[in-house]
Amino acid sequence: MFYSFMINYLYMLLQTVTYTTMLGTFNMIASSLGQNLLWGRISDRYKLRAKLIVIGETIAGFTYILVFVIHKSLIEAGNSFTAGIAIIFGFSILEFFWSMSDVGWAALLTDVTTPEIRGGVIGALNFIASVGRAVGIILAGFLYNDGEGFRSGTIFYMVTALLFIGAALMTMISKRIKTVNATPREKTAILTFEKASSENERAYKWFLFSLVIVVLGAASISQIFLLFLKLPDGLNASDPEMSLILTAWTVGGMTASLVSGRLADKIGRIKVLFLGLSLAIITPPLYSAALNVPAMALIYGLNGIAFWTLHTVGFAFAGDVIPQHKRGRLLSRYNMAMALSWGPAGLLIGGPLADLQTKSLGLPTFTAYANTFYVSSIIVALGTMLFAAKVAKLKVKTA
Prior knowledge:
globular, about 0% strand, mainly alpha, about 85% helix, Growth Hormone, Chain: A, single chain
């Protein structure tokens, strides 16, 4: 509900793609610092999972309101640019504390599942999350109203209410959660990771490295794509049409979440990951070829399948090889790699590349954005080749 249209709102306030991508960049840095330096260690040492989720969601809810109040006062004072910067830094502080919830969720889901069912369970939960995202995007499409939904605080207050409800539900549910004991297969995997294999350990490290490249490539156009949909010489999509396209991505992700996890449990993680990577390479160059909203929705839906396949199966793969006593810390690194999709890729690659072409080279905005989509595909292809050379081969040897 919140971030789908926040990029457009920030662009109205800041007026450049590069500044706009700072939102996800600083968010990711703050979240990564919190998870890797603090929350992951606390989770492993004190075995806190559900409590981290509840505390993180509660703090996030209060911070949403605080950021809105500060942003609103700056808007009323006529300082639109400063109001945009306040949102960026405010949500960076929010993410530092909210990231304890990310650690809690990742460790908890791995604790209560076994390798035989982990992919299917993660996929089912991602499906539920996708349903929530779809509803949120549809609501945001009607509430945004050219930025009024943020200026008036409607979207801020609705998100805050949902966070508090989620925290309350987890408080009640956590009393019934019981961690499963590791199966012989999982114990063997842990032993291999800790003692016997440099190969399994190397596979995980190279997996994270290749994942960083893939996510950087795929996410470098996330913000640009939202702006691309609004271009007058392109689709010139209305808010409801934009909402429809974004919902198609979520629907594709819902399908992938249900199917990819179970499929990975049956035929193996690596094969399904390659399917997701292939779609991630193919879809970006097709954006500029879409002639109407239904065509764009179909293409973006396929991209949603790619992302959620990688997210679902990638998490299951990480859970398979990470030992229980290191889950908080090592899953924090996985979360950090996935968090690159929030904005750093746009700030480091997509935003500067788009601005360079339009402001320095004088290319039309449509052409500049289309070229950025091609670059995205190339980067994802490079990450896929690294994954094939360094991860797939090693994993086959230790499977």
